[in-house]
Amino acid sequence: MIRQLTVFVENEPGSMMRVTSVLTESHINIRAISTFDTPEFGIMRLVVDKPKEAKEYLTKEGFVVRITEVIG
Question: By Cβ atoms counted within 10 A, which residue in 13, 25, 36, 45 is the most buried?
């Protein structure tokens, strides 16, 4: 099973960059990414090399993050 991060972000310019910047600065590699948006918010789904650490860093920066197992 693969562990996937789900990150909730506001639907505004720069939201994706803030998430990916936190991961880059934390030396976490993104393996896959998909996004979904509504007028108010966006959902980013990411597969990263260190999901537990990624969740810790993103949560510390104020993001709402969940980890789920997916079949890849």
Answer: 45
pLDDT of residue 6 exceeding 90, the answer is: yes
- Order across the sheet with 41-48: list the strands: 30-37, 41-48, 2-10, 64-70
CA separation for the pair 70, 2 (Å, rounded): 5
DSSP state of 39: S
* CA 63 to each of CA 25, 66, 72: distance values in angstroms, whole numbers, following the listed order: 15, 10, 25
pTM of the model: 0.90
